[in-house]
Amino acid sequence: MDASSKEFDNITLPYGEEGAPSFPSIPLPLAIAAAVIFLVGVGVYFIKGGKSREEPYPYEPQSEEI
Q1: Does the keyword Membrane apply (predicted)?
Q2: Is the pLDDT of residue 40 over 90?
Q3: What pLDDT sits at residue 64?
């Protein structure tokens, strides 16, 4: 039974000594890349002014009418 208990110990090792986290273990570079992509997307969204897709420029239709 000692061998089986060692196998279970090896399975729980990747989660860390503090205890199993509530989320599945993700490789650190992958998590960092996902966070960077998300933050860049949010930054670009706010730099463009939020709802820029619906109303890019309020004065653009007026310039077309003139």
Answers
A1: yes
A2: yes
A3: 53
Q: Using CA atoms, how far apart are residues 65 and 38, in angstroms rounded to an integer?
A: 39
> Do the beta carbons of residue 27 and residue 16 sit within 8 Å?
no
Q: What are 4's two structure tokens? A: 């089986």
Q: Is the pTM of this model over 0.85?
A: no
Check residue 23 and give left, alpha or beta (phi > 0: left; psi -120 to 50: alpha).
beta
Q: What is the mean pLDDT of residues 28-54?
A: 82
The angle formed by the CA atoms of residues 27, 30 and 33, to the nearest 5 degrees, is 150
Domain count, the chain: 1
Q: Which two tokens stand for residue 65?
A: 């009418």
* Domain that includes residue 11, residue range: 2-65
Residue 45 has pLDDT above 70, yes or no: yes
